[in-house]
Amino acid sequence: xxxxxxxxxxxxxxxxxxxxxxxxxxxxxxxxxxxxxxxxxxxxxxxxxxxxxxxxxxxxxxxxxxxxxxxxxxxxxxxxxxxxxx
Amino acid sequence: xxxxxxxxxxxxxxxxxxxxxxxxxxxxxxxxxxxxxxxxxxxxxxxxxxxxxxxxxxxxxxxxxxxxxxxxxxxxxxxxxxxxxxxxxxxxxxxxxxxxxxxxxxxxxxxxxxxxxxxxxxxxxxxxxxxxxxxxxxxxxxxxxxxxxxxxxxxxxxxxxxxxxxxxxxxxxxxxxxxxxxxxxxxxxxxxxxxxxxxxxxxxxxxxxxxxxxxxxxxxxxxxxxxxxxxxxxxxxxxxxxxxxxxxxxxxxxxxxxxxxxxxxxxxxxxxxxxxxxxxxxxxxxxxxxxxxxxxxxxxxxxxxxxxxxxxxxxxxxxxxxxxxxxxxxxxxxxxxxxxxxxxxxxxxxxxxxxxxxxxxxxxxxxxxxxxxxxxxxxxxxxxxxxxxxxxxxxxxxxxxxxxxxxxxxxxxxxxxxxxxxxxxxxxxxxxxxxxxxxxxxxxxxxxxxxxxxxxxxxxxxxxxxxxxxxxxxxxxxxxxxxxxxxxxxxxxxxxxxxxxxxxxxxxxxxxxxxxxxxxxxxxxxxxxxxxxxxxxxxxxxxxxxxxxxxxxxxxxxxxxxxxxxxxxxxxxxxxxxxxxxxxxxxxxxxxxxxxxxxxxxxxxxxxxxxxxxxxxxxxxxxxxxxxxxxxxxxxxxxxxxxxxxxxxxxxxxxxxxxxxxxxxxxxxxxxxxxxxxxxxxxxxxxxxxxxxxxxxxxxxxxxxxxxxxxxxxxxxxxxxxxxxxxxxxxxxxxxxxxxxxxxxxxxxxxxxxxxxxxxxxxxxxxxxxxxxxxxxxxxxxxxxxxxxxxxxxxxxxxxxxxxxxxxxxxxxxxxxxxxxxxxxxxxxxxxxxxxxxxxxxxxxxxxxxxxxxxxxxxxxxxxxxxxxxxxxxxxxxxxxxxxxxxxxxxxxxxxxxxxxxxxxxxxxxxxxxxxxxxxxxxxxxxxxxxxxxxxxxxxxxxxxxxxxxxxxxxxxxxxxxxxxxxxxxxxxxxxx
Amino acid sequence: xxxxxxxxxxxxxxxxxxxxxxxxxxxxxxxxxxxxxxxxxxxxxxxxxxxxxxxxxxxxxxxxxxxxxxxxxxxxxxxxxxxxxxxxxxxxxxxxxxxxxxxxxxxxxxxxxxxxxxxxxxxxxxxxxxxxxxxxxxxxxxxxxxxxxxxxxxxxxxxxxxxxxxxxxxxxxxxxxxxxxxxxxxxxxxxxxxxxxxxxxxxxxxxxxxxxxxxxxxxxxxxxxxxxxxxxxxxxxxxxxxxxxxxxxxxxxxxxxxxxxxxxxxxxxxxxxxxxxxxxxxxxxxxxxxxxxxxxxxxxxxxxxxxxxxxxxxxxxxxxxxxxxxxxxxxxxxxxxxxxxxxxxxxxxxxxxxxxxxxxxxxxxxxxxxxxxxxxxxxxxxxxxxxxxxxxxxxxxxxxxxxxxxxxxxxxxxx
Lengths: 86, 977, 415
Prior knowledge:
Chain B is α+β, with helices and mostly antiparallel strands and 977 residues long. The interface between B and C is large, with 112 and 110 residues.
């Protein structure tokens, strides 16, 4: 059971949250302008990095905010990334 | 009788009777089943699983691998360690793995077959017939106890707890660490699996502060118990350390509680593991005979339970610790015939024996044991070879060294390292928030253990920013210091030398695995099953590693250890399941109308999002088909009513709501007028259907979105994700009002009359158009009324505050009586939907269907620059090719409703020539059309209207005509009426 | 290869089992191979076996970072079945069952394929509909999957004793008689022995650290045992797909997630069938030949390469199990662990060429163990001929660029 550091509520058990996937996965600003290959890559592919990874978490059973953290996918060590909060 | 006349922590004033294999025995409060059986002179507790060899008690603790029993009273429980089971009056236990009994066991014939069944024999044979043929017989041999005959009715609970410092183990190290942590003011918790704290101190001979260890234990626990910031739990085992220092612990039979066991989730800022070490046996021929016991366990039985585990003992050791045991037994009046030490040159400990006249044979080994169901003689030979000489004994105390209990340390992912000096695996690098202290860290002298405990406790609080407490370690007078020279295996002799007692794994098995090129220790474990029994190799694993190392000509450190997997000790499923039973497992959500529905005989059904809804409302004597037909016709010809409260409802506030709607819906939204609603289709970014629903504009910057019950959470996620990750500049708040507003839907040609009759200030005349929204009062309460239709008929959705819903519902029922208003269930709604050909994103959606496939291109405005799913839909259109489309089906047989899920085949095909064309998604008998109809996903279906397909079901195969998926009122005139 | 049999066992018993041969060699790697398989689990070893057996390619090496079968092959719950939803999935999984049935004799190694049958409880109408769809689709491909009533459930599972106030009452079940349990380690060992006997080099403790390309084409792999030249590399590394693919400059549509499994202490045989409870969450259990109740549920809800899981999954599944089998309350959890799944976007396996000529990927997805022989069989075909086997033709990466996914049930893909 991970302890997720919500920037608004403090550290809470992982089952209050939903993991929202990689935070560096950005939707093309103009989808119509990108080619199929780029779109396919955005839609389906992941970096799926082994190691420190930026990811979205949603405190769905808490404050309701989405935020990003950096979490090591091997050790589960978490550094929050305060620069990236709303 | 082997009970000593005095001593021990048992209460001789409280005799208890118990049964073992049907015979009555007596023990005392404070006994374990094991100590009571030993005291009663019971040598054989059970049989081993493969060779059915008689087995006795090996240990006095959690590491027990032999003395596994089936308890039948006070409640039935399989695979209980006799060493961990406190004796209670009326306890009834039985031996396992033997028939008809533990003394004469037919299964022992397996012993004769032993040459044919070495490790992994089953991989090499039973190839003649299918494995199932053999498995029937072989499976019966496996397993230990039996599943209880009835469900155990005890209660369990789960507790969540937060502490600064959690100390696991209340031996010398744990007590010291807890004292240090608690004195600093940190919230401290100390767990111990024993009934009383003290660990090894309870059976050791150390003097602390000039007195017996009991005084020191008493003083420390008294101080801890007096501190508000310290908590101490007995009979509580920490079974695993999980991410971010979550420790799972099981408390057995908590005092003054109605629960059988309690599962603790303890989140600790710092964990100090002070779990101690367990002794391991030595590996020599017939080292499994009853009467072979760990040296420390023999001492424990004498000192803690006043039981003589034998009257004439021989010790066999490769280290210094056994001498203290020999001395303790001698001092308790038990004859100690000899100490056999494999070391050539023992240290000062030898004095313990010599001073008591106990013979010591150095550089010797026990090379065999006489006696089948009880040790009679130990065969002793010089280590370098020579004729074995017998030594009479009924107890053979063995010590092969100590295994620090690093399991919980390993659960964090850290790897233990081999310590040559101790011939043991000890913790390596420490994780940042977990520390190991005392014997678990490889410190085996009492003074050092206590000092290390204080250190660990102080380090823990210091790392949390608290002051290190000032504590002076008490003076300790302990025995000689620990020294060991590993002796992994004793070769020669004829008997089997076991490295894993419970799984009957011998040295020969290890050698065979090695010979067949299983080299990784993990392979050896899996091929021979060594270390995979219920004790998880707590005592035996290092011996396996040592044996492998000898074969490979490597060191134990190079051979490496297997992964310790949680739990540290087996945990009952009862306590893991906790309180969640029956209706508490997934609490059902209700609406204000649920009670009314149940009172009116509705058949209830799961409706998504954990709601249960009426399926249909059978009248007396009505079948489901009858009821659904009646309900459907009422809506088509008169008036029906249903409780739409479970629908998802979101209020969207903010100036950018139209921008959000343009993004998440496929159609245009910026021109929606206040008081008007619009149907919208939501796609996933990959173009697939996500949900549909109607959104109304309540005010300039307030909208009300509704969505399917089951999809509500997905839609909320979709909106919040969009607003908080990709389009963070949009000024929109999403407020989930699903639980605030009840939704009562009056539908059918007479809906307007019913609403008028119930009383409303809302103008119901045709100026109140389809997709209009009005506020007003209905049946005297504030209401929001919308004209939407999920049935295809004129209908009014009356939204009222949840607390008014029941009253308004009953008012509508009363007012509607004149038109025979009929409550309808979800099955009827389904029929009405199919008749209208409304696509359900959760059914026809199928995770593959896109908007075009669903026949919903009409609502997709590709002239919009962007919306979620647009790019993927564009890709699908560009690629073209065959896709599955939503179609209608008119089955040929007017009396047969095709089964949902039936497969569609090319007409003319049979089921045995696979030509899969699609499947039926929804099917019903249409009361309105008086014939069966269905919706389906069919390859290229849009272009196949009028063609014929075969509907292949499990029961029947029928032909059907492909049609448009709208069977009723294709222009939608009725719902707009 | 010396053949195994009862007679061989008896003969060796006479000599104290001192004359058994090695199951496989531990050769030094050659400098060059016709094909290199990365990953010595069931898939990788099976692929090497079929390359040699079906395609005459024996100058092949399997590189395993650790020990054979140490990844998901040794961590799964031993179930093989073919109850799937899609027309692409059913024949593929049926092929796997067909192969499994014959493998013990073909490999001369007992995989202990035990046709126990699988019973999936129906606890809601949505599950009922999906089950029917599966049953009908499977029927077309000759796979039996039938609805059974509570009477038959009780007859087959005497300990079936659902709580009377069960939240999601069991109204019936679907039954796949052919679903089986297979001794998982034996699959890796059997394939390894078979491949080795056909000349394949199996190199353990050999980590691939890089994939060398020249002008886009594969030229070899860098390993901790040096550079090994090869024109063809097949990747079969469940749980590390993205890591290895990245060495070839490729991103894959997968997320690596832990999938947990656990066993009870062994008890005498009481459960013959494989049972699926509350199939929304997919709690399943069965009893191994050793007597342990083997239990599992769905993936942990976040990406992870740590081979450990989150405890609430076990708690949740236990409540589901006890609701149907309350007599298991006093059984005990003995051991729990996790494997790492490379979960494809649509939940189905990927057996595919890539944009890098000569680099092939096999991503097992959630059902890696059950597909082992079929995946290996079709992957070997793909590597040998550079064209997909018809059974796996729809399982290529091109299904993502075309959006024609093979979406299996219970997979949340809206990332």
